[in-house]
Amino acid sequence: MPRPDELWLSRPPYLMIARIVDVDERRPGGGVVSYELHDEEGSVLELVRHASLDAGWWRTFQPLSPIQG
Known about the structure:
9% helix, mainly beta
């Protein structure tokens, strides 16, 4: 489940990063998420509010894991 301030990477064919702003898990049908969508250079493309955490979300985004080292 996404959490505020986490970064999520879009799956191919696009390369965008979603910075999670807010999550409301109490909504019927699995909840909603609000996020800033950034391009690969870090520019904000769009602020998305109340996107459904449905199958489409899980197909589009994956957690961005920090690289250790």
